[in-house]
Automatic annotation (TrEMBL):
Source organism per UniProt: Actinopolymorpha pittospori
Listed name of the protein: Peptide/nickel transport system ATP-binding protein
Domain of life: Bacteria
Record-linked NCBIfam families: oligo_HPY
GO biological process: peptide transport
Pfam families cross-referenced by the UniProt entry: ABC_tran, oligo_HPY
UniProt keyword annotations, A-Z: ATP-binding, Nucleotide-binding, Transport
InterPro entries: AAA+_ATPase, ABC_transporter-like_ATP-bd, ABC_transporter-like_CS, Oligopep_ABC_C, P-loop_NTPase
GO molecular function terms attached to this record: ATP binding; ATP hydrolysis activity
Location of the ABC transporter domain: 12-262
Coiled-coil residues: none
Length: 360
């Protein structure tokens, strides 16, 4: 008999969230960093989902909203069914413990006047994770060993005495101690040497697999996204333009923006020309400034007249694969209310996992 799906509310849910900087939504001086995005993150899935896109696509804004660092201009962010803006006291403490961050700059997390132990002992005291000094020490040792660090070579040192990779793994260990239900890793390897990236990403994958903690991996690096994630969301100027299983999206991208991103990666094949697989249309279209259509129209090699008239809805060019592009208007359209379900980080093996259009 199949195990029934959990009726508990999702860990985190974004409902039609928009974030605008520099003025109101209708201000000419405003910048829309995130535009009407819905996303559901359940706390009972071990998946890694990558959010990719170039600078200014809204990736970090999405991460900041998920962690409650900033408030949305419109829309709602829910934590276990409760509006994050209404949280206080013990509930806010629970939220801060359940949703942990690993930031881009590993050095900025540390106070240079304190030993690295300080980064670990503060959350232990704040969240009352240990009853004694011995318990506290054991907790730190176990967390450091889980991310591949030797406690005797890490504890008691100052931040400048550790490498960038070691500092970053300490921040992963800090998040790990709190037994979070979600880790948001915002460009965690962009400021470390290439030789250390694999080690840090392997630490995140170990946490993901051994503790069944879902990870939202924010990155501009399609290569690392492909190797570590299960699913991928591609963002452009505040909107999600493509989503699905990472193998499907990377090997058979549908949206022209995703195709351009992937074709910008050098291939070890002298006979392969960059951009040879990008969709094109012979239709000549003038894209007026300030049009209300697709945000990628100005750069799109496949732009059509209707692209500048209205923004495209998400379509399903294949199962487990959504793309917001009129090139697929002959395929099933994904209803607005179903887009959030398409982007749900569903538990592995759940019945929802088997439905068409839901990532594995």
């Amino acid at each position: 008999m199949a195990k029934p799906e959990s009726t508990d509310p999702p860990l985190i849910e974004l409902r039609n969230v928009t974030k605008t900087y520099g003025g109101g939504v209708l201000s000419r001086d405003s910048t829309v960093a995130l535009d009407d995005v819905s996303l559901t993150v359940r706390g009972d899935t071990p998946q890694i989902v990558s959010v990719v896109g170039e600078s200014g696509s809204g990736k970090t804004t999405l991460a900041s909203l998920l962690m409650g660092f900033i408030a949305p201009t419109s829309g709602t962010i829910l934590y276990e069914g409760q509006d994050v803006s209404s949280l206080s006291g013990p509930r806010m403490r629970e939220f801060r413990r359940d949703v942990q961050a690993v930031f881009q700059d590993p050095f900025s997390v540390f106070n240079p006047f304190y030993k690295v132990d300080h980064v670990l002992t503060v959350p232990i005291r704040k969240f009352r994770l240990a009853r004694s000094r011995s318990d506290r020490h054991d907790l730190m040792v176990n967390a450091l060993e889980t991310v591949g660090l030797r406690p005797d070579e890490t504890l008691g040192r100052y931040p400048h005495q550790l490498s960038g990779g070691q500092r970053q793994r300490v921040t992963v260990a800090r998040a790990l101690m709190l037994r979070p239900k979600l880790i948001v890793a915002d460009e965690p390897v962009s400021m470390v040497d290439a030789s250390l990236r694999a080690t840090i990403l392997e630490s995140l994958r170990t946490v993901n697999q051994t503790l069944n903690v879902p990870i939202l991996y924010i990155t501009h690096d399609l290569g690392t996204a492909y190797h570590v994630s299960d699913h991928i969301l591609v963002m452009y100027r505040g909107t999600i333009v493509e989503a699905g299983d990472v193998e499907t999206v990377i090997t058979a991208p549908k949206h022209p923006y995703t195709q351009l991103l992937i074709n910008s990666i050098p291939w070890p094949d002298p006979d392969r020309r960059w951009g040879q697989e990008i969709a094109t249309r012979s239709e000549q279209v003038t894209v007026p400034e300030g049009h209300g259509g697709c945000r990628f129209a100005e750069r799109c090699p496949a732009v059509m007249a209707k692209c500048v008239e209205n923004p495209p809805p998400p379509y399903l060019p294949a199962a487990d694969h959504a793309a917001a592009c009129f090139l697929y208007d002959d395929r099933p359209e994904l209803p607005k209310e179903e887009l959030s379900r398409m982007l749900t980080l569903v538990p592995s093996g759940s019945s929802a996992q088997q439905g068409e259009g839901v990532p594995r």
